[in-house]
Design goal:
465 residues, seven-stranded antiparallel sheet, 14% helix, alpha+beta, five-stranded antiparallel sheet, DUF4331 domain-containing protein, DUF4331, single chain, 24% strand, globular
Length: 465
């Protein structure tokens, strides 16, 4: 969660596990869009001597649909290679790493980034670009922020890229959510299952606090992503909205050579992970479909629409919290499809429902992170995005600080159904339900500039969990 270990097979393959997708108009450069794809979830900062890294055998991709058919029109591919200076030491570094070419750094990673536009030849934007090391501690990485800054590379044409370790910016009370959907602020109202003792209400606990993640961050001009290079200001222009998703792919055959103690891969790449809207595969798609969903492309997502139309969590809330969600219970029993959720997650929100807003991409149902690029960054952002009156926040794209858990829980609880049915009155609890965790529960602050996610926690200074 947001998409950490969301399916049985990908939970065994963390370097290919897409954990979070962010897409937003850059507050520091509002003529650009920032795209962030995170992988390798739940990293312990002290995870040595083999510290975390991208997979050399994984193809990482960021996809953009700009004509509403659920298929990519622009794709950015990232491939990584790892160099080992001295194979005869177990050490990641043999002294302080004070520059990206430090002789003390034994295991370095580089990458190539390629842009592929439909109907054109692929364009290599950068070759052998360096990743920074992992943040190990005050002796090994004494000035980590400078190493990370040095790893931000200019691709020309107002484009920047960064690949490397960052602080986990997604906050969630995993322990409460997966304990039979028991958000701590609402624990006193939860059904007790006849147990002699049960948790009492209290503040949320951020399970991802002090953990790290590996980030691919790209900042490009809006016209690089939109149909026909559109860069207008008309919010209602259909060219303003793009759909974003990420994927990780592996070659079809992987061989293990026991004599040379090596592995190698061959054959065409096959997608093993994808992600757009947070929690979609994790919470909406049922267990038996999760691995299959990870291998599919968004244009075929109509086959999963029934799980959005009648989400399991919406059925569970009135059962687990008796008397708290009577209007939601009545809506569930009516058998009506959740048209609000179908719009938010699969088509985008059409104009006319929210004043001054739309991110509709058409009738094709596809799980995409939809961003209206004509909506500029908010002067007073709300972590609750659209539900907080902030048109620049989730589900209009996603910023690093958006409280997607609270937003989606509230939407599922019925807070957004009145948009499509004016006769419906959301339960009072629908506007309040969340896991009780906010950005204040992060030890590492976000940055106000690219790549926005904070400096990763180091293994020496971070208490072990």
């Amino acid at each position: 969660m947001s998409s950490h270990r969301e399916a049985p097979e990908i939970s065994k393959d963390p370097v290919a596990d897409s954990t979070d997708v962010y897409a937003f108009v850059s507050p520091d450069k509002p003529d650009t869009v920032t795209l962030i794809a995170n992988y390798v979830p739940l990293q312990s900062p002290a995870g040595g001597p083999n510290f975390y890294e991208f997979g050399d055998d994984v193809l990482y991709s960021i996809h953009i649909d700009n004509d509403g058919d659920g298929k990519e029109d622009v794709r950015y591919d990232f491939r990584f290679t790892t160099d080992v200076r001295n194979p005869n030491t177990f050490l990641y570094n043999t002294g302080p790493i004070q520059s990206l070419d430090s002789a003390n750094w034994n295991r370095r990673q580089f990458y190539t980034v390629t842009r592929d536009v439909k109907g054109k030849r692929p364009d290599t934007l950068g070759k052998r670009l360096p990743c920074p090391p992992c943040n190990i501690g005050p002796l090994s990485t004494p000035n980590y922020a400078s190493l990370a800054t040095a790893a931000i590379r200019d691709l020309g044409g107002n484009r920047r890229v960064f690949c490397g370790q960052r602080a986990e910016g997604f906050y969630v009370d995993l322990g409460a959510v997966f304990d039979l959907l028991n958000p701590r602020p609402f624990a006193d109202l939860h059904i007790k299952f006849g147990l002699p003792s049960a948790p009492k209400s209290g503040p949320g606990v951020n399970a991802t606090k002090d953990l790290n993640v590996h980030t691919i961050a790209l900042q490009v001009p809006i016209g690089d992503l939109t149909r026909d290079g559109w860069t207008g200001s008309n919010v209602n222009d259909p060219r303003a909205t793009i759909g974003v998703w990420t994927s990780a792919s592996r070659q079809r055959v992987r061989m293990l050579d026991s004599q040379l103690h090596n592995t190698w891969s061959t054959g065409p790449f096959r997608q093993v992970s994808r992600l757009a809207n947070p929690l979609f595969n994790e919470v909406v798609v049922p267990m038996g479909q999760k691995d299959f969903w990870n291998t599919q492309s968004p244009e075929g997502d109509s086959r999963f629409a029934k799980y959005v139309a009648k989400p399991e969590v919406a059925q569970l809330l009135p059962v687990l919290f008796p008397g708290v969600f009577p209007n939601l219970d009545a809506l569930n029993k009516s058998g009506k499809d959740r048209a609000d959720l179908l719009a938010i997650l699969l088509t985008g929100i059409p104009s006319g429902l929210i004043p001054g807003f739309q991110n509709f991409t058409g009738k094709v149902q596809a799980d995409l992170m939809r961003l209206n690029t004509a909506i500029k960054p908010s002067a007073k952002p709300s972590i609750y995005g659209l539900l907080g009156g902030d048109l620049a926040g989730f589900p209009n794209g996603r910023r690093v600080f958006d409280d997607v858990v609270a937003i989606e829980l509230r939407a599922i609880a019925g807070a957004t159904y009145a948009l499509v049915d004016k006769t419906f009155t959301p339960d009072g609890a629908a506007a309040q339900v969340d896991d009780g965790v906010t950005p204040d529960d992060l030890d590492v602050p976000y940055l106000n500039r690219f790549p926005y996610l904070g400096t990763p926690s180091d293994g020496f200074s971070t208490p072990s969990k």
